[in-house]
Amino acid sequence: MSAIVITGGKPLSGSVRVQGAKNSALPILAASVLNAGQSVVGNCPDLSDVDSSIRILRHLGCAAERAGDTVTVNASGMNRFDIPESLMREMRSSVVFLGAILSRAGEAVMSYPGGCDIGPRPIDLHLSALRQMGAEICEEGGFLRCKVKEFTGCGIHLPLPSVGATENIMLAAARARGTTRIFNAAREPEIADLQNYLNAAGGRVSGAGSSTIDVEGVPELRGTEHRVIPDRIVTATLLSAAAAAGGEVTLTDACPLDASAVISVLTDAGCEITARGTELRASRRGTLRAMGRVRTMPHPGFPTDAQALVMAAACRADGVTVFSEKIFQNRYQHAMELLRMGADIQIEGEVAVVRGVPKLYGARVCSTDLRGGAALAVAALAAEGETELSGLEHIDRGYEKFEAMLAALGADIKRV
Ligand code: EPZ
User: Fold this and answer.
1) Which residues line ligand 1 (CB under 6 A)?
2) Whose CA is nearest to atom 7 of ligand 1?
3) How many CB atoms lie within 10 A of CB 318?
């Protein structure tokens, strides 16, 4: 079993490039089956979740290859409409293949998806929307057997702005008969990226980034080229690391606007963060101040994916930070591990009260989910002594060359 060993307690310094966004690349790779041509997806991070998508595409009969940071998919040979349970369980995003496969093949068979254990993650909104668009879905023994003659555009009101459900509807609607209007759609930047991919492929999608998205169905989509946006949660990880450990870091190929909710919280806490084009410079020289109240919200609010990362920094801040986790029910598992490092955290339901301590100490800790694992590394950078972090399979799902990324900022980190 491999682990990462971090010797913390020294300020960071250096420059690192931000990888492409996992949560954009995954739905775009699923969307590539909507056309029978070739999709060239650039800035595609090299992660185990992206590997899982490539394996799903190959299972479906598509050609899918990676060369450097580009994944090329040729979906002309697609000849299956099922996804094996083992691949479905590898990640949550496997479920966005549902709308795409159904649209292309008229049939789909798959099990419920896997993904991080951060609380119940139902897919009722996905299924209800696809049914409203004409799909027949039979749920039996953990499997979904789905059929559709032709998706038909309609108005869909999402009771909450689910990212995955919004993506699934967009994929089902892209080649549907008529226009689909999604009310209360998710507004995350990854939704706008999917819109841009679909439009480059000949789709007619508008409104992404707002809460109403219109998808006018077109008879066919064509192959296209697309570059994935920068990963705003990796950006948040690196900014949190600089806040926790101190020093000065430069992030290149970033999208400062997409990370603005996190930038605002860290700036209030005493970090100096400046943006110039796609570059972000972050420094923290004085004491980190507590962040007051941090409440996770759908975009453009403070992202749930950054909660653990900023909490790791808050553990070392001067004063009390109160987190309210509003999106997922079980997203404080990292807090138990932070306690082993000397943090002072009390949790009651969706609220976590973090009292900053003067010192964190290195310890043996284990990632319980993707962002929680990265948060433990952030805390380790600020801790005195050596931290051994296991459970790396979670981190490898979302971070490309995690140790190299932090080593580029001067961190003393190695995988053993
Ligand atoms: C996406 O998950 C991201 N994953 C998550 O990132 C992210 O935390 C989340 O959006 C919120 O921003 C990907 O993009 C692959 P949701 P998703 O549907 O689509 C409830 C990471 O670390 N809900 O917006 O699964 C759900 O339980 C991952 O990269 C239903 O009730 O999130 C949750 O409370 C972790 N029924 C809320 O909506 C449904 O049918 C938001 O979930 C769907 C969702």
Assistant:
1) 22-23, 26, 92-93, 116, 120-126, 160, 162-165, 186, 304-305, 327-328, 370-371, 398
2) 305
3) 14
Determine which residue's CA is closest to atom 14 belonging to ligand 1: 23
Check: CB of residue 218 under 8 Å from CB of residue 202.
yes
Q: Is 271 a catalytic residue?
A: no
Give the Cα separation of 19 and 15 in Å (integer): 13
Q: Average per-residue pLDDT in the chain?
A: 96
pLDDT in tens, 157-183: 999 999 999 999 999 999 999 999 999
Secondary-structure breakdown of the chain: helix, strand, coil percentages, each rounded to the nearest 5? 35, 30, 35
Residue type, 20: G
pLDDT of residue 118: 75
Q: Mind listing the pLDDT tens digit for each residue in 96-149?
A: 999 999 999 999 999 888 766 777 788 999 999 999 999 999 988 888 999 999
Task: Pick the closest to residue 245 from 2, 415, 14 (CA basis).
Answer: 14
**Interval 219-265: pLDDT, tens:** 999 999 999 999 999 999 999 999 999 999 999 999 999 999 999 99
Q: Please determine, for residue 55, whether its predicted confidence score (pLDDT) is greater than 90.
A: yes
Q: Which of 62, 116, 146, 271 is catalytic?
A: 116
Long-range contacts of 205-209 (CB under 8 A, 24+ apart): 205/170, 205/174
Q: What is the CA radius of gyration of the chain?
A: 21
Is 188 within 8 Å of 141 (Cβ atoms)?
no
